[in-house]
Amino acid sequence: MEKILEVNDLHVSFLTYGGEVKAVRGVSFDLHKGETLAIVGESGCGKSVTASSLMKLIPTPPGKISQGSIKFKDRELVNLSDKQMRKIRGVDISMIFQDPMTALNPTLTIGTQLTEGLKQHRNISNKEAKIKALEMLDLVGIPYPEERLKQYPHQFSGGMRQRIVIAIALICEPDLLIADEPTTALDVTIQAQILELFERIQQETNVAIILITHDLGVVAKVADRIAVMYAGKIIESGTKHELFYEPLHPYTQGLLNSIPRLDKKGEKLEPIDGTPPDLFSPPQGCPFTARCPHAMVACEKVYPPRYQASEEHYGECWLYDERVKKYQSS
Amino acid sequence: MLKYTIKRFLLMIMTIWIIATLTFVLMNAIPGSPFNEERTSNEAVQANLEAHFNLDQSPLVQYAGYLKSIATFDYGPSIKKPNDSVNDLLSRGFPISAELGIISVTVALLSGVVLGVIAALRHNGIIDYLAMTIAVLGISIPNFVLATLLIQQLSVNAGVLPVATWSSPMHMILPTIALATGPMAIIARLTRSSMLEVLTQDYIKMARAKGLSPMTIIVKHALKNALMPVVTIMGTILAGVLTGTFVIEKIFAIPGMGQYFVESINQRDYPVIMGTTVFYSAFLVVILFIVDITYGFLDPRVKIHKEEGN
């Protein structure tokens, strides 16, 4: 399949009074047309910053992409100006935000918010824009779209608003949709509906989706591939099946163990002890060392090399290094 | 909305009645009468005059008379200027005061909002600090001090602008600056802080993610939300400008309503006090009503709430 996004060694940092926060420290991944990549990790691991950087939406200053490349359809985005980025935002790459209660402007009608992006980027009449807007509301499953266009965000429920946010993101038919925790703020029943909507939209439009989440249940439902982030790095990546059934990294294993399971009754949940490292001064070795049950001296000193388990699946951990294996067996 | 308007209208009449009553009580509480200063030692003459203006009757009868004149918009002649009725004074002075007030408020609003928005966009930059320094100065310097400084520097020393009166656009510049600077400073500070808050909202990030231009985002998405607190404070600011006109009119010798108001109190010119007070309060109450209606246009949530509330 056609590769549409290629991120290579992306570094993003924020300059604060306290010093430089290295939020993203060398992230690489790629994405094909019609594919869903889930970026998973706990709060503060840099997954949202990665997502915002792809559209260059991080506030600059204090934030900046200090190194690396983002290639979207063979075009380098890192050195584009804001003006050039504006022609890509909303048209080629769209974004969905976490909280639908705050993502819509309370003082503008849904119709205005739906069509303004379309009018900005395409040379079309108000009437055509309206027809397209009605089509989109229909696609995301909002009844009575004609009347709904004239209403304001406060007249919609949370789930309905997220559907509208999705409609806004898709109205210019982008190739890539970045969804930053799109279901976190919603009820569980609504979550399921929104996830089904994602699947249906992907089948109909063949849009590639980057799903940022910390909810492994969501990942299991919609993702094709998963990247696990920790302290600004992707420490493991693979297909959904590989990652859920043969996790390599102790952190991924810990994440999976900390999910409540219906099939094992009475067992205690196993949380991962400790907290992620301070990104003002990230450790030079593996950032998970302090919390890792298998930590060795090497982990603390040197960042582990990549271990490629299959074509798609890799983990960055010393446990899989030949030298360590040899040492352990002797 | 109609129900709300009617309710507000009745409340407005109540407010004006209360103000008129308080003015009447205060007026009678101050010792002295319109004829005290005059050298009319002749008691018979004074008694005659008082009888002519109903001042020899009981306060209750006088009060009834005042209410009647308010209701009919006919305050009778001025005691001190027998050739003018109170309505004459109002129709002569008000257009000039209104001109000064409207120009000042417009200048204050436009420059305040622009200054505030620029400061917010250049948050913690040099322009921000500069704008906020101007704003703090504007709030701290009373308009009469600023007025005298302006007259001294620009009119007397530099000779660029006329010293006083209200006869051409050139004459209007100094009084307008003197009157508008304070409100402008308040509006600028408020717009800045409110704008800074709005700019961090998700819907602004969403607007950026749509690929809209910075100008569209600021004007269409941010400003409309950021202006809510500014609209709230406009009522207070208009009241401030209204009282400010008294002082400014005095300094620049502008023949507006302010001078009649101040003069009438000094001279105990009862009909003029009554007329100007009721006129000013009615004016202010109407403005506050308009401010309230404006909310509904800026924020659709307000309108709904009121309809449900009534």
Question: What is the H level of CATH, i.e. the homologous superfamily of the domain at 99-257 in chain B?
Answer: MetI-like
The structural domain count of chain A equals 1
Report Rg of chain B. Answer: 24 Å
Count of runs of 4 or more consecutive helical residues of chain B: 13
* SS strand fraction of chain B: under 5%
> What characterizes the major β-sheet of chain B?
none
What are the segments of chain A in which pLDDT stays under 50 over at least 5 consecutive residues? Answer: none
CATH class category name of chain A: Alpha Beta
**Helix segment count of chain A?**
13
Order of helices and strands of chain B: HHHHHHHHHHHHH
Helix content of chain B: over 70%
Describe this structure in words.
The complex is a heterodimer of chains A (330) and B (310). Chain A contains 13 helices and twelve strands. By secondary structure, chain A is an alpha/beta fold. Chain A has one domain (3-92, 174-329): P-loop containing nucleotide triphosphate hydrolases (Rossmann fold). In chain A, the strands form two sheets. In chain A, strands 6-7-8-3-9-10-12-11 form an eight-stranded mixed beta sheet, sandwiched between helices. In chain A, strands 2-1-4-5 form a four-stranded antiparallel beta sheet, covered by helices on one side. In chain A, helix 5 (126-139) packs across helix 7 (158-170). Chain A starts with a strand and ends with a helix. The longest helix of chain B has 36 residues, at 86-121. Chain B is flat and about 85 Å long. Chain B is built from 13 helices and no strands. Chain A binds chain B through residues 55, 57, 85-91, 94-95, 97-99, 102-108, 116-117, 120-121, 152, 154-155, 165, 168-169, and chain B through 201-203, 205-213, 216, 220-221, 224-225, 298-301, 304.
Topology:
The complex is a heterodimer of chains A (330) and B (310).
Chain A: E1 3-16, E2 19-32, E3 36-40, H1 47-54, E4 63-72, E5 75-76, H2 82-86, E6 93-96, H3 100-103, H4 110-121, H5 126-139, H6 145-148, H7 158-170, E7 176-180, H8 188-205, E8 208-213, H9 216-222, E9 225-230, E10 233-239, H10 240-245, H11 250-257, H12 297-301, E11 306-308, E12 314-316, H13 322-329
Helix pairs in contact in A: 4-5, 4-7, 5-7
Chain B: H1 2-29, H2 43-52, H3 59-71, H4 86-121, H5 126-140, H6 143-157, H7 169-199, H8 202-209, H9 214-226, H10 228-251, H11 257-267, H12 270-298, H13 300-309
Helix pairs in contact in B: 1-3, 1-12, 4-5, 4-7, 4-10, 4-12, 5-7, 6-7, 6-10, 7-9, 7-10, 8-9, 10-11, 10-12, 11-12, 12-13
